Amino acid sequence: MRLPVDPPSPVAPRRVLVTGAEGVIGTVLRERLGDAYDLRCLTRAPAAFPSHAADIADLDAIRPAFVGVEAVVHLAGTPHVSSSWEEVLHSNIVGTRNVLEAAREAGVGRVVLASSNHAVGTYEIESAPAIYALDDQRVVDERAEVRPDSDYGVSKVFMEAMGRMYADRFGMRVVCLRIGSVLPDDDPTGPAIRATAGWMPWLTDDDRRARLRATWLSQRDCAELIRCALEADVRFAIAYGVSDNPRRFWGLEGARALGFVPQDRAPG
After folding, report:
1. DSSP class of residue 132?
2. What are the start-end ranges of the E strands in 21-85?
3. Any domain includes 197
4. What is the residue range of 79's domain?
5. Phi and psi dihedrals of 111, rounded to 5?
6. Is residue 201 a part of any domain in this protein?
7. Exposed, middle or buried, 45 (CB in 10 Å: 0-12/13-18/19+)?
């Protein structure tokens, strides 16, 4: 049955709301896309920059932030693979549904959702650390069956499913980005290898160093990928967010279909 939706507008947005604007990626967007778009910000608490402060789990509280915007980049939520079910339910499941519903109510035509590689993380768990080797030919792309590795990963599968439904039922343009490792210091050789210490505990520091070089998404490439997602002429898409690293094991075809051309590569 064909759903009665209006065709999405191909016109690129100008006014863009960024949820979770205080986080690492939100900061990247504020610094790198502030000249390209009229950015509005939603943060959980009052910030040092202009923002609407509200918890995304409270639909009534976040509605005012969506008025008058043409697109949303949804970054807010608990970002850790080790997050408890209660955290995931509150921020990533209830919060994601509220963001999409507030966008629909406000007539927002485009939404970019910050999904995660953990929606398919079991492929990596089964293959690590060999999959990080320079000569390993395995690739996981957007055609792979979802295989979440945690409650957090399940919440990202939910996010993608909700995005698909809002695209099909309500005519939104929705792009889900399975974002890799975006670092505050933008250094794929730095101390961030410790960030994954609670996940796959059998990995050595050398393994984690190789993984970081495989999964790194530079700040420059991150901003450009999200810009491409905001302007792509698609109804719905899933793409991986990763720089063109020699060790990468996620496919870039979906991102390239959005117009993304990565500029950076982690050292081999």
Report:
1. G
2. 38-43, 52-53, 71-74
3. yes
4. 15-256
5. -140, 130
6. yes
7. exposed
Rounded CA-CA distance 84/62 in Å is 24
pTM beyond 0.90: the answer is: yes
- Annotated catalytic residue 152: yes
**Average pLDDT value for the chain:** 93
- The answer as to whether 104 is a domain residue is yes
Residue among 139, 92, 124, 166 at smallest CA distance from 254: 139
Q: Which CATH number covers residue 97?
A: 3.40.50.720
Catalytic residue among 37, 152, 166, 240: 152
Q: How many CB atoms lie within 10 A of CB 228?
A: 20
The yes-or-no verdict on residue 1 having pLDDT over 50 is: no
Distances, alpha carbon 210 to alpha carbons 115, 179, 181, in Å = 22, 17, 12
How many domains does the chain fold into?
1
CB 136 within 8 A of CB 211: no
CA distance 147 to 218: 25
Question: 159: closest CA among 97, 239, 75, 90?
Answer: 97
Instruction: Tell me how far CA of residue 136 lies from CA of 131, 132, 264, in angstroms.
Output: 6, 7, 20
Asked whether residue 181 is assigned to any structural domain, the reply reads: yes
Q: Which of the four pLDDT bands, split at 50, 70 and 90, describes residue 268?
A: confident
